[in-house]
Every structure is written in structure tokens, then in C-alpha cells.
From TrEMBL, chains A, B, C, D:
<protein>
    <submittedName>
        <fullName>Transglutaminase family protein</fullName>
    </submittedName>
</protein>
<dbReference type="InterPro" id="IPR038765">
    <property type="entry name" value="Papain-like_cys_pep_sf"/>
</dbReference>
<dbReference type="Pfam" id="PF01841">
    <property type="entry name" value="Transglut_core"/>
</dbReference>
<feature type="domain" description="Transglutaminase-like">
    <location>
        <begin position="159"/>
        <end position="219"/>
    </location>
</feature>
<dbReference type="InterPro" id="IPR002931">
    <property type="entry name" value="Transglutaminase-like"/>
</dbReference>
Length: 265, 265, 265, 265
């Protein structure tokens, strides 16, 4: 399926402010970016680099006054994410090197605190995909997915026991539980076509059966229409924008996803 | 200045054929890609990765029959490349690590053969930018730039002494001479706005005075309007397409560059 | 000065257990490793790789029963770490890419919580080195460095307000405060020659004035004799060993540092 | 088996001269470095870095006058390299990214010239390991391995048709032929225990059946006792030392390999 995705950010800065941005989906084996647009208004110098997770990042200094960023793309992606009941646990010694950082605790996923809980939740499950599936079942059952319920970032420990949470929070908890079982888990920020109300979405991937699989504690159907913008250990790595210095006013943020058709040759 | 650049490749393959492609300009400190389009027709699965030089590369298997690729972009770049007479030679021990591979001989730039010649050509020059400038003077004076004069790749040793050569050949010779002086030099393939007849162009950058500077043995004016597509040690690293297996018929290749305006916000 | 450093770990495992190890100091511009030894007993297959921070890491599966690891090295390092009062703050847009990850909050350094506190602590300081120096003054004054006072890892938020802490805790707090000022800070685990009682030590480096400088909240004299083993965002990245699965018994850990002389040619 | 390996280089420089060195074997899945020594005499500042192929490289500026480097190691490695008749050809689209650079022509391996010859030599072979084996058979039969027969580096095209050649030359030819079949091939420089007369040795690895396999046109028995020092595309990438500026006198080079026993714990 083809999607047209866009994010438009409008800022108003009192002083020139350095930004790090991550708004550019990359073509990978799960998605193909055919058209893309990245407009800075007013136009300012910007430099792009690839971070340690392979994300395309942009650096720039915002002007004083109004400043807007439009990042849009036409992307082909799958209708459904792959499900793989029974996909096996990969022992740590056989994991690819690139996957190892996703075993460690991180800012918002204190996996070191969830060892016992993860074992209990997954008792009786075959090691691997089924364990992760039991984890997202638990998260989905025990916490009500409530878009807009939280503006501050919460870590897995803070989320655990909450009644309401946003996608990012639920993902943090699920990642922490997954890593506690020595299963690599990485956060994804991106677009999800059927999401309502529309916003950027967060989910995660777990490495079982020799590859990364999509898991989403808020969408157990494994609904596709997903366009990944950035991968990382948790929300600290995949902020779509990070600004430094005195806080800048985010005047508006508009996210849109539309079904579209293949681009003409 | 804003440029709209495009390359359209049309192939006809008898059998499904694996390709490596490098057609996607990246935003860097010398250019900003605001819009981009990459269309495969018919649509086939493709995967993108970043190579050791930072180039965005695509892998795919062409279908049997006709197959076309269109890669276009709207890019902001400078009217003129920087000139820096007197920019100093950087001693090897102070070069950044990332620059060191560009000191070594490579497939088409046998710098190990040009030590004496490079010394003679640059006798009396201040070490650094002025040496490289003397080298491109020599290449420009001694070889007539003749677009279309050669279809097979020639190495610096083969080019040296020729009367006619294409941009790629002249660049190979200049790079080999530059590296022979222990100055890092890397090849660039990209677009040059005023080129006639229009085609993809090859030039190089040398690392002097603490940064990379543009040099072009075919365009001594340092004319800007340059959009880099790929960087590498020589033409072996920066082929815009590499196909494996039995040769595939390249039916047509159309390159176009037009001045345009800044994209609307 | 030349140091002979060694760490000897003895484990007893009930089941074969995967380990990640980081015990190999690397030669860099601050230290030169002239001799090195890494002995596994009994000998088991091990694979080495370089992580995203440049650390040499080893992977292996421990045997059942007793298992020991000896890592020793002869290293040349400086008598004193460089002090640079007045070294300037580097604005984010001018930081090297490789330094950017050390601006973000991490598992044990929740820099996002320390913005106001960091500003107050450094009020009146010139931006850069002097700010970081004020931060370690504060940490050293407000928390009593008490080796052995804590066995569990504590994050900066947990450490802040404590009366006693180990080097790792104090470093976490100082890093979080430093990053809150948009100054990159990275944790170092290694050897410190005059440390008593001898143990592995933790300190940090901050990027000011265009390079990394050593800071140590427990050793304000900038005493040298430091041999870095690993760099990372915080203790989660630089554990000298990480084991997966059921806990393995660490029977003993002996760390030793001795002054030695240059090796014979 | 355990080997004690050493290389001792003695230089005499008229002027301070920058060097790049590659003398440090790394622990990998085929070898484990348990002890290591790297002595510069006189002692000069040196910095180590990892190149794009994963080799540990050292940079230093030699003093004026005599200068020696001793690099020794105790390494565990296999008695025999793995043979895998029938190991299958991996189609380009399924090769890991890290392997792709080893498909391209390089300074001394002009694979683009050997397409027809490689096809003829391997006619009737199953694609993969058997093709590479046929190539080394051909190289071993058609060229007499003559240590000391050549001091200058020769490329595959120059070697092809020679009657005598050194290990490096024969390896270049075999690599070029292998890559001409779209099989990745990389050069290895290292120690080979039974070599007589003792010297550093060159061989190569080809990627078939999903992994790298050892091939050696001078040692068809797949004799083990191999300690790899460096990997690269060809001799340009894996020079154990590269010096820049006026030539420095290499007074002597002594290479030694002895069987030894496992180090005491």
C-alpha cells in the first residue's frame, strides 16, 4: 500500500536556537520512500548526518521569530505486519553485534527492574515471539491506551501500575519487560495509517527468530500501514526534534497520513 | 541557488538481475536536498543502506523486460565553489581518521606511480591548495577535455599521456597526482548545472587547510551549481549503477539539470 | 608514567551463561597500551567486537563450574589530567557528530530533570569548563565519597540529595548536570593509580573548548595515572561484564595497579 | 593450537616521518589473542584507531635516527582452515551489506578484466566454493610460488601470465578472478606457522555458503596455524606499514612464529 505522510512543525523562537531533527523516513526492507520533501521556512542552513542507529538526522539553528518545518513522503509499506507465533528465542551468543545495544537498560526502559515480573508474565510461554506477545497482552490489558493522557515522558517504572498511558509510555513498559528476558527490543517512532486521532505513533520491534518483528501494545491486530521515521533504544534516542537552550515555543504540529497511489514513472 | 536534477535510466534485462544503485544526493554542509523522488517502474522491492563513504545505496533485483529508474531532486547549492589559495598542507599525523583512506592508491588512481611526476609538477608551490591547483592546471593543459571520447574506464596511468579524455579520466589522473603528495583526494560524481552536453559529471575534492575543497580539472573557474551524488576513492566506488551477472542492456540514460526556485513552505 | 593494571574475575556458574565483557584498555591519544594479556581459564571460545563507542568487547559463554578471567596491561599515561579553566562552551551546532549522543539523557543520567538545578549551580560561571568545574565542586561538597557505600546502581535523581555515594553514583549526578547545560559528557570506567582501597574507578569527560577533558567528582586534584577501559553514556554502557540469564556467582574480583617501567624493546 | 607471533621492524629516518601501522592481530571468531606486546623504541606518542575494515591501526611520527617496532602476540587458532566443497554461491541481493565492498575492483585486483577468464576457468563447477577452489587450482598450477621473487607490488593483470610470483601476487590474481564471478573476496595479511622461509604471508577469504572461507593459492592443503593481522580489498588496504614523505630506510624486518602453549591463568 502507498501512503502520503507529512508532519508540519511551527515554532516561534525568541533567540536563535540549535535543533536536532529526525523527520526523514528511510527506505529499508520494510518500506520504500519514493518521494520526499523537506522544507524549512524561512530557509536556513542545515546539515544531515546518520546517527548510530542509522537514522537520518538534521542539524540547524532556527532563526528568531516564526520557523516552520514540513517533512512529507510517499512511502510503500505493508498492509499487515508479520506475525510469527513460535519464532524462537535467540541466545545472546548468537545475536548479531548490531542488536546487542538493544539488550541494555536505557533512559526510559529500566529493564534491570523487571526481571521477576517479566518471568512471571511469560510463564509457560515458548521462549521468543510468544513471550513478547504475552507481554503486549499484559500491557494492553492492564493499561488503558489514552491518547493525549500524558505530555511528559514517563519511564517504564513510572508507567507500570498506571491506569492510563499514551503509546510511548506503553511501549517503554513493553520494551523494558522484553529486554528483561534477554530479548533485544528497539523503539520505533513513525506513522500508522488508521490511527485516530492522527498523531505520530510509537511502537517497538523485538528480535526473535533471527529478525526484527513489529509489536504494538496499542494495536494488537498488527495492523500495517506503518512508516518508521526513527529507531532507537527509547524516546531519548528518537525525539523527532530536540532543541537546546531556552525552550522554544512549538506553535503547532500537524501530522497527516493519507492513502495514495504508486507514483507515475 | 536551487537546482532541479534528474537522472532517468531505462534497462531491458533478459534475466532478473541484481543491481547496486547510487542515485540519491544527500543533504550535507554543501547542499540541501529539499525534494526528492525515486521511482522504480515497474515497482520492485528495494532496500537502502549507507556505504562506508556515507553514500545512500539501493539494492534491488530488476524484473525481466523493461525496467526504468527515475531519480530527481530539488537541491540548494552554492553559485561558486570555495577557492582557497594558500590553504596549507595538513601533515598526515594531524589528518582526521575518516580522511586517511583517501591517501591510498585505488583501482583507477595508482598514486604509487606518480611520486616523481607530482613533485616536479608542483615544484615551487606552497604545500597544500596551491599544489593541487598546479596539478589541475597541468591536467587541463595537457589533456583535451572531450566529452564522449571514452566509454571504458581508464586508470590514471592509462590516462597520463593521452590527448583526449572525459571528466572521469582527468579526475583519476588529478587524484593520483594529489595523493602522491600525501594530500587526501576523493572522487565526486554528481550534477554540474552549466555542463554541455548535459551528463553526469566527475570531479574531486582535496583535503587541505583543514577541510575538503572542490577541484575540477575540466572547469578551472570553480563554477558552482554542483550537486554531489556520491563520494569515493575513484570510479569503482561511485558507479551510479553496478549490475551483477550477464550484462543488461542500458536502453537510455537521460540526465537533466534546471534552475528552479525555493520550494514553497 | 607506566602502569601495570590488572583485573581478575572469578565466577562459578551453575549453567553455561552468555557474557559480554569490556576489560581491554585501548591505545588512544591519552594512553598507550604496550603489553596486554587476556586469559580465560578454562579456555573457551570468545569473539571480540568494537561497540558503537569504540570499546573492545568480548562475547563468550562461560562453562559450568569455576571460570576466571584475567585482563592485565602495561600502559603509558599522564601524571596529571589537563585542566583548562576558561575553555569555552561549544555551541551545539558546532559539535562533532560523534559527540552528540552524549548530550541526551540516559538510563542513569536523567539530564532532563536537572535543567534548573544546573543553571543555579553554575550561575556566574563562564560557559564551558568553569561550569563543569562548578558542578563537580558541588557534587564533591554535597556528597561524601564513600567507597563501598552502595552496591546497586543508582541514577542521578536517586543520588541527588544522598549523603554518601560511590564514584559511579557521583559521576552519574555530575554527568546529568553537565548535559543539562548542553555540554556533552561521557562516562569513563578504568583504573586510577593512587586509588585506595584499590578498585575499578568511574569518572567522566566533558566536551568543552573543542576536546574532551577529564573531570572526577571524587578527585578534584585531577590526579593522573588514569587508564580508561571503556567509554559510554553511563554505567549501562560500560559494565565491565554483563551476564544474561540466571545470576552467576561472582566469587572474587581483584583489581591491581602498580607503577612499572617502560617495556624493553 | 597456540602460536607466539612477532614482527620486529627497524627503521632509520633522516627526518621525522609519519607512519600508519597495522601490526596488531585482533581477537575474532577464528583466533583469540591472549597476550600481546607492542613496543616502540624509542617511545613516541602513538594513537590507535579502527579502520573501515575493522583493523586496529596505529599512527605515529617516527623520530630522526634509529626507530624500532616490536609487535608480538600469543594467539589461539585452528590447525586446519575449514573446507566446504559445495558451499553455495550467495546471490548478490542476499549478501550482507558489509560484504559488498569486496565485490568491487580495487587497486591490485582489476576484476573487471577477468570476467571471461573466470567463467572459462570455472566452467562446469557448482557455483560457490567449488568455483573458488578451481580458481586457486589454476593459479597454483600456472604460476610457480617463489618467495622473494618480487619486491614491487603487482596487480592481477600484471601477475596473470607470469611464471613466478610471491604470495601477494598470486592472491591478487585469485581475488580478481573470484570477484569477476560476483563472489566477494578479501585479502588477508598475517602469519602462517609452517611457512618457510618465515615471512608475513598473504592469502584471501571468499564469501560463499553464508560465511567467509579461507583460500590460499600457495597452500592448497588449507593448512591452519593462521593468524590474521589485517583484512582489506587488496595490498593497498593492508600494508603493515605505510610511510608518508621521503622514503625511510627499513634496516631490517624479522618475522617469527613459534608453537607455544596456552597461557597460565
Amino acid at each position: 500500500m502507498w501512503l502520503h505522510t507529512s508532519t508540519r512543525l511551527q515554532f516561534h523562537a525568541e533567540v536563535a536556537t540549535p535543533f536536532l531533527l529526525m523527520l526523514r523516513p528511510r527506505s529499508g526492507w520494510q518500506q520504500w520512500v519514493s518521494r520526499e520533501q523537506y522544507v524549512l521556512s524561512p530557509s536556513v542552513p542545515a546539515v544531515e548526518f546518520t546517527d548510530a542507529f542509522g537514522n537520518l538526522c538534521q542539524r540547524l539553528v532556527s532563526p528568531v521569530g516564526p520557523f516552520s518545518i514540513l517533512a512529507s513522503a510517499d512511502v510503500e509499506c505493508a498492509e499487515w505486519a508479520d506475525a510469527a507465533p513460535g519464532a524462537h528465542f535467540v541466545e545472546v551468543q548468537f545475536l548479531p553485534e548490531s542488536v546487542l545495544p538493544f539488550l541494555l537498560p536505557s533512559r526510559y526502559c529500566e529493564s534491570d527492574f523487571f526481571y521477576d515480573m517479566a518471568s512471571e508474565l511469560t510463564a509457560g510461554c515458548a521462549p521468543g515471539w510468544d513471550q513478547v506477545n504475552a507481554i503486549i497482552d499484559y500491557v494492553a490489558r492492564s493499561i488503558r491506551y489514552t491518547p493525549g493522557s500524558g505530555t511528559t515522558l514517563r519511564s517504564a517504572r513510572e508507567v507500570n501500575g498506571s491506569s492510563d498511558a499514551v503509546c510511548r509510555d506503553m511501549t517503554h513498559l513493553a520494551i523494558a519487560l522484553t529486554r528483561a528476558l534477554s530479548i533485544p527490543a528497539r523503539m520505533v517512532v513513525g506513522y500508522l495509517e488508521p490511527l485516530a486521532p492522527m498523531d505520530l505513533h510509537a511502537w517497538f520491534e523485538a528480535f526473535v527468530g533471527g529478525r526484527w518483528y513489529t509489536f504494538d501494545p496499542t494495536q494488537q491486530s498488527l495492523q500495517g500501514g506503518r512508516v518508521a521515521i526513527a529507531y532507537g533504544r527509547d524516546a531519548a534516542d528518537v525525539a523527532i526534534f530536540t532543541q537546546f537552550g531556552d525552550p522554544v515555543d512549538l506553535v503547532s504540529m500537524v501530522v497527516d497520513v493519507q492513502r495514495t497511489t504508486a507514483p507515475p514513472a
